[in-house]
Design brief:
Layout lengths: L4 H7 L4 E6 L2 H14 L3 E9 L4 H14 L2 E3 L1 H8 L1
Parallel strand pairs: 1-2, 2-3
Length: about 80
């Protein structure tokens, strides 16, 4: 932990986080786990993450499905936010 992300989110009254990012099986996974462990609702946008190959991407999706509150597409997130 080298940042104050949890503090900043809590101080703004945020309890739900939508994640996307560059490396599905490293950064996105790490942030997802940290946020979940700290009591946040976490949704991962599966078409807004990348990985160093199809196997790594698919493995990350399996992990997301077991840990996150949901694994959605960009279209699903956009519709839910509207």
């Amino acid at each position: 932990e080298s940042n104050d992300l949890i503090y900043q989110l809590r101080s703004q009254g945020i309890d739900t986080v939508i994640l996307g990012g560059l490396v599905a099986n490293l950064c996105v996974d790490s942030h997802m786990r940290t946020l979940m462990e700290n009591g946040f609702k976490v949704y991962v946008v599966k078409d807004a993450v990348a990985a160093p190959g199809e196997e790594a991407y698919n493995a990350a999706l399996v992990n997301y499905g077991m840990i996150a509150n949901g694994v959605l597409t960009t279209a699903q997130v956009t519709q839910a936010l509207n």
